[in-house]
Specification:
homodimer, Jelly Rolls, 239 residues, Arc Repressor Mutant, subunit A
Chain lengths: 239, 239
Amino acid sequence: MTHLPASTSPTLLGLRPIRLLAGLSDEALSDIAQAAQFTRYRRGQTIMTRETHERDLCLISAGRVRVIMLAPSGREVRFRDIQAGGVFGEIAALDGKPRCATVLAQEDTLIARLAPDALGPLLQRHWPVCERLLRGLASAMRDLTDRVYELSALNVQQRLIAELLRQATPAHDGEARAWIDPAPRHTDLAATIGTSREQVSRELAALARDGLVQRDDDRLCLTLVDRLSDRLAGLATTD
Amino acid sequence: MTHLPASTSPTLLGLRPIRLLAGLSDEALSDIAQAAQFTRYRRGQTIMTRETHERDLCLISAGRVRVIMLAPSGREVRFRDIQAGGVFGEIAALDGKPRCATVLAQEDTLIARLAPDALGPLLQRHWPVCERLLRGLASAMRDLTDRVYELSALNVQQRLIAELLRQATPAHDGEARAWIDPAPRHTDLAATIGTSREQVSRELAALARDGLVQRDDDRLCLTLVDRLSDRLAGLATTD
């Protein structure tokens, strides 16, 4: 990582893409830019490490990051990818405990770090920013709640179907097919639904044998979306 | 449930136990009490149903509630029990989408419901309340993140050990033993770690055979806490 010296420090321009700060005046953005520490990371670098004690709120000025945890077995548990304009690190910034996940730069990435003692005054002064942060936390909690449910109550095939349906774009209104373009990598699916790559490959092969999915060049076609939904809703849980 | 008519409506007294509102003046509490709708639920009644569209923030004036989801298979996925003084329903109150979980009264319970359009002004006017809500959301996100990790990367025995260690009270400093008193019910453990009651019973029997846990009257004794921790950290994942 590279800390940028003050002379070359991106000014408020670096904060313009941040959705959390949308609508703030140039003056307010300048104040935040002065309090922020801008840091560049190269693709693949670790931006944040689980269990460490730093507590900055991180604003993604440019680039893309991935939030993960690594199991002792080496298995990656993937939480979310966040694009430029998004934020991460809210949990430790707000509750004061160590980092609960690890964050990696997926591209060359520019982060504006805001120290926790600058966050409180910012939220107090600008209610729309505070409201957006509250709404973002609520939405992240909703996603995590759904994911705990799926991991607890659905078997691997059902979790795979749920994830494929989330990723797919319907071909046309009322059509039975939907597409994922490009086709998702089996390792990515495995890290997202909490299983092994081998198990994803087995379950995709089983869905293909049943005529429910079909590889088509670089895309994956869900051939019968309704029947996939039925299978998701109806199958009994297995352990 | 019983809506209380205005004449018998609990006044600010009903809001005094709510930790989110701690430190507010009697005048501020009276304003909130007037905006709130107090409702009584009997033990076992449903207070909130997943997928419904009401969006009140719910303050637990008295009693205790349980947040769950039910799978089509009938399996219960348990999120958390919340005591008097706590709040629930923040997610839909903040992001405006349908309820993402179901909430049941575990005892006779008195809820003060605050409509979403009363929540914004309350948070804007009282920064300590807003800060406490932010911290509570962050802490809930941390718990959910850990749970997604455990469900994704740990096998059933490891998840069981993690939950037993969370529930246990060490006997004395430096001692190898810890106790859970009373011993947890197998169905409760199953709903919490995302497996079946039968599987919990099998894994507890396996831990007992290895001398790691022992039933002692109404309590469960973890006889070798260090070896349980090692097993949690070291075992490879199985699927």
